[in-house]
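Deliverable D5.2: sample structural annotation.
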Amino acid sequence: MGRLAGFRYREVVRRLKTLGFAFDRQAAGSHEIWFNSASGLYTTIPNHPGDLPEGTLRAILKQAGIHPDMFLKA
């Protein structure tokens, strides 16, 4: 398990909010679109029970333009 393993949806959302993201709209199924007005970037977050897979969280951060270290400090 890497540094980004073991995060749940609520924890990911809490940290993204501190980094300037806000809920934008509901996407297909249980996915949500979040937007950062400062950077103009969108990211898609799955709202599933349990921990997000580390690869999924890395993809969310890459899409949002957030370095993993910055996410872990938030």
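Annotation notes: Strands lie at 21-26, 31-36, 41-46. The mean pLDDT is 95.
The annotation will be released with the project's public dataset once the embargo ends.
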